[in-house]
Model the fold of this input.
Amino acid sequence: MLNKHTLITLSKIRFNPVMIVKKWWRMKAIKKWLLLVGVIIVFFIAGNQISAAVNRGKPNLNKYQILAVTKQDMEKVITKEGTLRYSGVVDYPAPVSGIITDMWVQNGDEVQKGQNILQLQSTASPEEQADAWNQYASAKSAYEAAETGKMTNQMNLEAARQTVLTASQERQNMDDRFAIGDKTNPSVNRPNKTYTDNEIEAIKSAETQARSKFAVAEREFSTADVRIEAARAALNTSLWKYQLTKDATISAPVSGRIANLNLQKGEAVHAKDGMLFRIIHSDGLLVTLKASESEVLKYQVGQETVFSTSVYPEMKFKSHIVVVDTIGTEVKSDTSSTIEYLVKIKPDDVDKKFPSPLVVDTETVVERKSMTLAVPNGAVNYSSGKRTVTVVKNGKTQTKDVEIGIISDKNTEIVSGLSEGEMILVPKTKKL
Done:
């Protein structure tokens, strides 16, 4: 309790700024400045606390902007790098050795199948001719073996099919006996037979094995044509190489346009050169790209896409997907492995010329939605396994959980959690 004397003393105290300043000025230098710094810090902290209390829950408009949730059209676009190639190119292999004695065509000429291209005088030795013949004979034997293998695969497939039918019938006979929980059910039109536990397991196992063997046989038969085509290609190549060990007039194996014919009359050629020329027998172009496991299911045959190139940087060429792999290829590295799926894209009518192969950038719209709720990507936050958006209401902010859908390069679809017209907090983008 304050006594009367103390109250009278306090009542005589007056706040006199001039006196306070004079007393502060008379203080020693170090104390004077320490006191000033302390007063400034106290006022700064108090000011911040007062400002925080006043603005608690209010958005910081220096860092954020307030926008309304709206409905808009949304697209999910996958951007991938691909390779553009002509869809039909045939390479004519170079001979063991020889000299060009005559030429009748030039690069870019259109030729028909069987049309003479150039005259070759062979300089191959007898040993080289014999080696080329042996390669041709081996390729011919491999081709015949591939055709015989297909017939064997078909016989194995039919035998496996019959085994499955027999095993399935035996399993059905047994299952019918158990129709009313009785191993000797007499009411079914099946052979009257009882089954031991070992017989039951044996019948089930026999059916499982039969189906597995049928699956293997079916896969072997389905790939037989691929093996035959590979053997036929190897046979044709070996035949060409053998023919080129002798003097020959080389003709076009297919109709098309001559390319990469970089030879002159009198020039010597060798097997190390790789090829004499190429024929583009189709002006069709194909873009091939590699999709991941998560991407491949989004690609569909018939989807529209566009591609751009460094050759025509200002243009985008329309195209559509023609092939999507369902069986991937495992790609291994030193530390991990991934699965890649090939996607092939056919350009629409294109009146431009491209080098081949050519790296291109593709953009494919894999999903579209009309007039769906959406917010800028920056408005969506991820924390503790949840997606949230900060809503502004009556000048205050609050966090709402949301479910998202399509994410484009700018906006995110909101499936649930927000309503059209609600005001949300969005970070301001920095100007470059």
Observations:
- The first helix runs from residue 4 to 11.
